[in-house]
Every structure is written in structure tokens, then in C-alpha cells.
Give the backbone structure.
Amino acid sequence: MTLSMTGFASQEYNTSYGVLLVELRSVNHRYLELQLKPDDNLRHFESAIRELIQAKLGRGKVDCRLSLVRSNALQGLPMLNHSVLQQIAESAKTAAQYFPHTQPVNMLEILQMPGVLQNETLDAEALEHDLKTALNATLDDLIAAKAREGSKLKAIILERLTQIEQYVAKVKPMMPALIQQYQLKLSTKLAEAHASNDDERIRQEMVIFAQRIDVDEELSRLSTHIDEVKRILNASAAAGKRLDFLMQEMNREANTLGSKSVAIETSQISMELKVLIEQMREQIQNIE
């Protein structure tokens, strides 16, 4: 499956403490780079969040935002700590025996004493379970979005490969006639060189001729690279780096074809091949 590195997904997950909001954004990057932005309620789960994302994503710059919107009941007034109040009451009663004429206890001052009022604490284990469930669901949505985008990239690349195959098929039968034309030109040059008894020039021309006419190897390697690109696109493993390497190799063969060209027709085909390869390379930059 071909995956793009570009994608977006978000989830709202209801928990006993409120609503978990998870948002993932991914763009292309050479490696996997995570930017985690959990709110204060979820910050201590950062290590678990990172592990989950790394287990499912291979490459890309991923922005992950997580927040917990507490329910109204949990955002209400703090609860009274009855055990602390009882201790304060007993202490006040004991102290009153020594100071019978003191003023009555001020309740507002009591409420301001440490530990009298407390907020409900979150169950870390239950919250972590809910967070992992929500994050896994969001990651699945993100991967599905990346797969949809990846299928479009795959179609573009396969279309360009078909065009390259057509050019390779076109240039192969052209070569015998082009070589024959070049041989006629070379024969004329050799005859001129022979007339001047310039043996060194004859040898140089023969070496140049042997180098320039041999493009069969380049065309064969291009066909091999095309087959390999198709195989990688249909495989389940990460493909981006492998495809990028093959684009370099294909461009090398296209360049060599152009440098060995013996006619304007093969020079033009070499240029068209390089354009198609560059178009594929641009799309491959977005593949995971």
C-alpha cells in the first residue's frame, strides 16, 4: 500500500472525565519528526503518546494536539475534605478549653485552610486507557487519509512509467537505422583521415563510435528500473526512500542516453525521459 506523508485526522472521544480531543496533521519530511502538544491534564502521558505514533507511522512531520475538556460536573466547586474538617473541629474544641472567651470560629477562614477544599483527582490508569483508544482511532483515520492520497500519487507515477515505457519501446527499433546513418557519416570521415594517412585520428573516431552507439545497456536498465518501481509501489513496506533512489538511477540512464545520442531523435527522447522522471520524483517526495 502506497502511503502519502500528507494527511489530517481528528477524533472526539467521550470519557468519564470529559471529552478527549485528538488532532493529527502530517506533512512530508525526510524522517519521522513528532511535535506533541498535550494540555496540562495529559502532559505526563507524552511518552506513551510518542510510542504509539512511532509504532504506526514511518516518515513525516507530525503535529499532534491532545486536550481533555472536563465535564461541567467535574469543573464545579471543589469538594469538602471531611477528614480534614473533623481534625480541625477536634483541634478547635480542644483549644477552646484553654481559651473559653475566644470568638467563634470564622467559617470562611476554615475553608481557606490547606486541604479543606479539594478537586476531584483523575484516575491516571483509566485516563491513559481512554487516551490510547482515542489516539489509536485517530491514527487509523490518518493512515486511511494517507492511503487515499497515496493511491492518487501511485496513479500519477504509474502513468509516467507507462509514458517512459512507450519512449523506450519507440527508441529501440530506431537504433539500427540511426546507427547506419552514423556509420555512413563516420565512413566519410575515416576516408578523409585515411587519405591524409592520419592513423591516430582513425583510431580516435573508432573509439568514439563504439562508445556512442551502445545504448542497449541503458535501455535495458531503464526497463529493469521501471519493473522495480512497479514492484515497490505494490508492496506493503515503506516505499519513499527506495523510489527516490530509483529515480536517481533512472535519471542517470536518461542522461547517458542523451550523451550517447547519435541523432536528434534520441536526444529529444532523452530530454522527454528526464522530464517524466523529474515529475515522478516530485510526487515521490510525498510518499512515506
User: Anything to note?
Assistant: The chain has three domains: 7-74+124-147, 79-118, 148-284. The two ends are 10 Å apart (CA to CA). The chain has a mean pLDDT of 85. The first strand starts at residue 7 and ends at 15.
